[in-house]
Write the structure tokens for this entry.
Amino acid sequence: MENLLRGNIKKLQAYSSARDEFTKQAEVYLDANENPFNNGINRYPDPYQNQLKERVSDLKKIAKEKIFFGNGSDEVIDLTFRTFCEPGKDNVIICPPTYAMYKVLADINNIEVKEVILNNDFSLNTNRIISVVNENTKLIILCSPNNPTGNSINKSDLELLLSKLNYIVLVDEAYIDFSDKESALDLIDKYPNLIICQTLSKAWGMAGIRIGMAFTSTEIVEILNKVKPPYNINTLSQQKAFEKLRNKSLYLDILNMIHTQKRLLTRKLKEFTNVEKVYPSDANFLLVKFTNSKFVFEKLRKKGIIVRDRSKQVLCENCLRITVGTEKENKKLIIKLKEIEK
């Protein structure tokens, strides 16, 4: 791991916050220049989100020391760039079509992006990935289930890439809770170069509080803790997440409703003559190929229904990405699509 770190990160002396220097309970706090009048949010939050980590550790069966929280998964990915990739020198490999923010974050950090396009069935082209790896490749980012295609990567392909050990592999599992495929979490102990990103934004319904999770080796967690801002997850977000994570039965009920609606929506969409294909999906959305996606997109927009146009992404010509909504929302979509088809 030492060889993969940026030179300046190896030498970095992390900022020591007031809550780093005193972690126990006290009667009077006069160390952090806070407003002393209690209003519930006048004190700085726990910089390491210990209570929330204990809850997630219990849910995921992952040791607390192997969990890192970011202000959304985007912060986790950005910190990974800043920790391992030397600007203007190193490169990252991504596999389009995929989440566009990977390239944006690489560009912000002045990291070269090598793109290895997925196979026509949206599977990984592992041979091509391995062939473009060079001495400056520090990071491979994979999305599973992939956005916008909805499919999961094969675990054997992932292990093949992980076995090389001379780069970090980050697997973005933002949609894993919707999938029948198993997570790669069980590979963390086997591969020290693996980072798994998950989120509370999707299945848990907490997009508004921006909490992304990384599961990885204790060594990488310790490094990310050095690089992150001291109080990157605010008090209200920590409290709300802890509260919502206590209600697993509601989470499972909603998950079941989304699965039911996805099956119904898939069947209904396949009945339209202007729909060429509804791609199989392990996520909470469907990638749908139309005969003329631009026409459908604009008509839906004018009728007050917003979907995502993915037609400009490679392998996604004439494709719209449609999130599975509530029963009422999905029925409205079908009604409007019928009006368009007339």
